[in-house]
Amino acid sequence: MMIYEWLVSILLLLGGTLILIGSIGLVKMPDFFMRLHGPTKATTLGMACLLIAAMIYFSVTTAGYSLKEILISIFLLITAPISGYILIKSAIHHKLAAKEGTQGIDRIEKD
C-alpha cells in the first residue's frame, strides 16, 4: 500500500469521526447556544479533513491539482464561522433563553 493511501484513509476516518461527533453534539446539547458548536467547530474540521483527503487522492491519481476541493474548502472555512456568528447574534437579539449554568450567560442577560 502506498503512503498516500494510508494518509487518505486516516484523513477520511478522522473527518468522518469529527462529523459524527459534531452531529451528535447538535442533537444532544441542551440549548441553542451549546448546540451551535457542533456544526461550526467539529463538522467544519471534519469536512476540511475529507476535502484534504480528496485533494491528495485526486492530485496523485490524476494529472494536475484539484482546484474544486480548494474552492470548496475556502467556501466552507469562510461561511461556517460567519453563519454561526450571525445565528448567535440573532439569538442574543431575540433574548433566546439559555440553559441555567451556561457560561457567559450573565454577560448576555445584561446586554
Commentary on this structure:
Helices cover 79% and strands 0% of the residues. The protein has helices spanning 3-28, 32-35, 37-61, 67-93, 105-110. InterPro entries: PhaG_MnhG_YufB. Keywords: Membrane, Transmembrane, Transmembrane helix. The chain crosses the membrane at residues 6-27, 39-58, 70-88. GO terms for molecular function: sodium:proton antiporter activity.
Would you spell out the secondary-structure blueprint of this structure?
Elements: H1 3-28, H2 32-35, H3 37-61, H4 67-93, H5 105-110
Helix pairs in contact: 1-3, 3-4
- What is the average per-residue confidence, as pLDDT, rounded to a whole number? 83
Strand content: under 5%
Counting H and I runs of at least 4 residues, what is the number of helices?
Answer: 5
C-alpha end-to-end distance: 58 Å
Total beta-strand segments = 0
Radius of gyration: 18 Å
Shape: elongated
Low-confidence stretches: none
Structural class by secondary-structure content: mainly alpha
> Please, how many domains?
1
What's the helical proportion of residues? over 70%
Helix-strand string: HHHHH
